[in-house]
Amino acid sequence: MKIKDVVCQLLRIPTVEKKTASSQDAVLVRIRTDNGLEGVGEADSQPEVVKAIIDAPFSHNIACGLREILIGENPLETDRLWQKMHRKTMYFGRSSVTITAMAAVDMALWDLKGQHFGEPIHRLLGGKQHGRILAYASILFGRDGNETKAIAQRWRDHGYRAIKFGWEPMGQSEALDIDLVRGAREGIGDGTLLVDAGCVWDARTALRRAEAFQQFNIEWLEEPLRPEDVAGYRWLRDRSPVPIAAGEEECGREAWRPLIDARALDVYQVDLARNGFTDGNYIRERVQEIGARLCNHCYTSPVTAAASLHWLSTCRDAFLFEDCVEDSPLRHQLTNEPIQAVDGWISVPDRPGLGVTLNEKFIAAYLVAESGGGSSSASA
Question: DSSP string covering 324-338, please?
Fold first, then answer.
């Protein structure tokens, strides 16, 4: 079996709002083999940039587009292909968009591997330890505490026992920050509340907020600092009265190593659409070695949600699953199989590979660009 083609598709909903939500456009990678199998992957990054990494022609031996690297290869050799992509894109940049493009490819390769062997990916990763996981509804804050309270009540009424609010408008003032969290707690009642600050403070301000939020019994305070401030995270984690979570921006094992080596976090949040299964396995083992907890990050489509479930189900101490509840058709209609919590719990797929199939009519309706498949570009 050999890789015959690498198709890259860009999807976008008609109206994109100016907000922090990566569920308004998407980039899919579809790897096709000479025996008719197809694997699907997704990157959580800027879709046009990911597409450029995949489509780029040969420049020299360490600056080559991913499609050219992969054509003719055996898709089952996932570790070797990860290493080959890493080597041959050395001049692309080593810890950001290149790795996210590689992650989409890697996800598709593992989907192919599962289909080839007739097994779900979690079994190929070593076996699931959880058949279902408590899901938290992941959503943005309202404009103030009252609006946030109403949003929390809505998702509590939908059966979620855990809810996370994140990003803007947090960080504008101490009074507003506390008002937002107070409203969230009032809306969710005695359920699990998680707060995502969205990288808005320095370490001392973050500590003050953690102390202020303690009264609202939050499960964790997520991304209070800039992602690269490893020393700040270690300082904060050692002093915070609430657990500290972060990691969604990190791409690949090299980006994760400083955070893990420093034991800088209580909860390490891994996005499969930015790391892939191959490096995701490495990160899982390292975090478990230091006795910290793992959670997925996922704010995109059901393709990444399915991948996240396979991976997270193999994590020994998995305790929560991020379930994006943005009202976006890309989040809910891209696959024929819904990947969403029911009564607050989400089940791990057991079909071969990722366990999801793409809704081709939906793709045709939202496709804005395509490469591979014998064409350099196309528009819907």
Answer: E----HHHHSSBSS-
Prediction pTM value? 0.95
**pLDDT per position as a tens digit, 193-211:** 999 999 999 999 999 999 9
Residue 353 lies in a domain: no
Angle at 50 between CA 45 and CA 53, to 5 degrees: 145
Is 377 part of any domain? Answer: no
- Please report, for residues 110, 143, 295, 312, 370, the alpha-carbon distance to residue 322 in angstroms, rounded to integers and kept in the order given: 21, 22, 8, 10, 29
Domain count, the chain: 2
Same domain, 165 and 296: yes
HEC string for 58-74: CCECCECCHHHHHCCCC
For the chain, what is the mean pLDDT? 95
Distances (CA, A) of 13 to 10, 141, 299: 10, 22, 15
Residues 204 and 310 in one domain: yes
Helices (H), the chain: 47-55, 66-70, 78-88, 97-117, 121-124, 145-157, 174-188, 203-213, 230-239, 253-261, 272-289, 302-313, 329-332, 360-366
Residue 242 lies in a domain: yes
The answer to whether residue 376 scores a pLDDT higher than 80 is no
User: By residue range, what is the domain housing residue 14?
Assistant: 3-118+358-371
167 and 302 together in one domain: yes
Residue 303 identity: V
Together in a domain, 93 and 142: no
